[in-house]
Amino acid sequence: MQLDVRLDGFDKPIGQLSSSWATGATQFSYAPEYLAREDALPLSLALPLSVAQFDDFATRAYFDNLLQERDSARADIVAKYRLANDDVVGILAHLGKDCAGAVSVLPEGSPPTKVPGQLEQDYRPYEDDEVVAIIRALYRREPLPQELDDPSPLSGVQSKIAITVLPDGRYAEPIAGAPTTHILKVPQERHERDAMREHAAMNASTTAGFETAPTGLVEIDGIPALLVERFDRRVEEGIVTRVHQEDFCQALGLPARHKYQRPGRGANGFNVPAIRNILDSTIDPAGERLKFVRITLFDILLGNVDGHAKNFALFHLPGGRMRTTPRYDVMPTMLDRRTVDEFAYYIGPSTTLQALDQEALERFMIDLGFTSAAGRRRILTAALAEVIEVLNRQIEVVEYDDKNFADLIGTNIRTLCSNLGLEAPMPAGGRDTFVR
Fold first, then answer.
1. What pLDDT, in 10s, does the model give residues 202-249?
2. Angle between helices 193-207 and 373-398 in degrees, nearest 10
3. Domain ranges across the chain
4. CATH topology for 245-430?
5. 20 to 30 Å CA-CA from 421: which of 45, 89, 255, 262?
């Protein structure tokens, strides 16, 4: 079986994905005419532009990451067509038109299914009752009404749908392959605070100086939801286009199930040295590494231990250049007592905040490539002071609506300060202890 791989913005397939009937092995190769283009972009850091054919391991890791993590659609296709669960090519033959991002995988010779969209003509506004039906279904974790298809299935475990917000504020679905512009996230019925908490966390990320996807709180039929502007879209003069990006799982050539660092996965998994290799491939390695130090400290003190490899991403720019994308999916996951408090990637030998000390932070800085001991101390001291100051102010922002969130931030700041032999500043020092 051979499929065309397309990238939005290019009029012809950029390569071919194939599998062997005999062995089931997958391969990917770029089209020669695509490689000859000056504006050619690599699909992935793990699949650089090359005349060579990529083997089963590299191919499977990238393309499997294009499929939804919530695998109901995948399971339906597997059952309907009697496919093997690991038959990535066979599954993409049916689901590849709805791959994440700017990539699509289609039967050979098929016309493109992803094209730029004109806001004035390529979108159908939802009726009010349709929006309510969508929200109710997501809130209750029920299938969408049969007449309302998800126009752009999304990865992840939250209940969400991709939509377009028109200039007049109405919600709309794309027509004929046009891009969506926003993601509407609806919390579970018993976790209605999640929308407010993610909104507060994303705002705190912006306040801390990180480029972060803009969010807004909305309430529809009495149900709170979070509207997130897509960071991988451009809207200019009424034209919506997709921007090619990939998450760190794809960039590292890892299957989605390895998005967390966990014991036994060795040096080739998601870890700080691997993250450093990605950041060193960007157009500003030093700046990206400094930013990553601050992001790591920010997430730890905010209570976000879900910074896995699919929650960081890269933009692919013309000329083979790359930079990290804005932040997205920033959430104080430690507020959910059902979740683990283990870091998504380890800080030196430390896997939790309780074990995070000066020695672990020193190892973290070395792993990120800071070679000077004096430089490491200076950078870490400044980053700690800056992040603690920002989150101390956030305690006062969130405490009126969410005492637990305020207590969590205060508890995390006190814990880290105690581990490092520092005095916790107020108001963090005076907050009630958040107990998991």
1. 999 999 999 999 999 999 999 999 999 999 999 999 999 999 999 999
2. 140
3. 2-107, 117-236, 245-430
4. 1.10.1070
5. 262
